[in-house]
Design goal:
Blueprint lengths: L9 E5 L3 E10 L2 E11 L5 E2 L2 E2 L2 H14 L6 E6 L4 E9 L3 H12 L10 E11 L2 E13 H13 L3 E7 H12 L7 E7 L4 E7 L2 E8 L3 H12 L3 H8 L9 H29 L7 E5 L8 H9 L3 E3 L15 H7 L4 H7 L8
Parallel strand pairs: 1-6, 6-10, 11-14, 14-15
Antiparallel strand pairs: 1-2, 2-3, 4-5, 7-9, 8-9, 11-12, 12-13
Helix pairs in contact: 4-10, 5-6, 5-7, 7-8
Length: 353
Amino acid sequence: MLFSRKSSLFGLDIGSSAIKLVELKEGKGGFELVNFGMAALPPEAIVDGALIDATTVIDTIEDLVKTHQVKATDVATSVSGHSLIIRKINLPVMSQEELEESIQWEAEQYIPFEISDVNLDFQILGPVPGDQTQMEVLLVAAKKELINDYVDVIREAGLSPVIVDVDAFAIENMYEVNYPVVQDEVLALIDIGASVMNINFTKGRVSNFTRDVSFGGNQYNEEIQKKLNLSYQDAEAAKVGQDVEGVNQRDVEKIISGVNDALIGEIQRSIQFFSSSAGDDRINKVVLSGGCSRARGLVQAMQDKLGLPVEVANPFNAIQCDPGKFDADYLSSVGPAAAVAIGLALRRLGDKV
């Protein structure tokens, strides 16, 4: 999305609770995992996508790269949140070159930011069904301030940010490499992080509607902290089922169930909005990823309330992982949290969005 030159790169997912690093090697049999690492961030380092403590983020990236002895310096990273706008729009048929010349003027009609304040990118998806004079275009606009903040911390860590992607598209890349894509199948790809939930409705290999919701794993911790009067650390321990003095796990489960219901409500609203504009298309399956996709009772509650099949993605499903180098149980336990980083590591320089 930003730059283009030929070299290897690795994926660096800078999330609000942890930074994930993935390096892949492409061979005749597919992709092989070369490097994988995660490092936690303190809760105040990144808030609602904004880098509050850049020094800690830089130090964490440097430590992660050093610990895992990563030789590559080119990085693919990604952004999400309210400073990012993704729209599928219809325009008169024109060439790639013509659209490049007119995209700023076209984008002004759809982007609620000053055009001078954003980085723009687009991809021509093809003709509008039933109207060969119009074409569908995926338009992406990200505030320059957001992009610059993430680019700056990566550069300060001694690395080169060569691709800035979008979280939702990274998840799409991850899914397409690991699972067969059915041409007419409509999927809801939902990545639930600590502070943001990325929702992407796709059909075949095309994204039809995306939405970022400020809702994630932090809500579980905050509710447990508030209702049981616990510290952040004790709330995190209670959330994952560990024994905490004076805490009854039945009370924790009740709180988690309530947050599950609120999260599913956000997804239901997105599904209703998508369905209202999707014609005859109906969602076939929900695919979850992200560190909070395994919240207790979430998958079953979501299946019951949505009336749809729900599964948790394994981002390493079709990735070759040397058992002598990587612990299979560990990869299985943290896999959903690695989904964005895997998608980023699959990117190649010169790719479009």
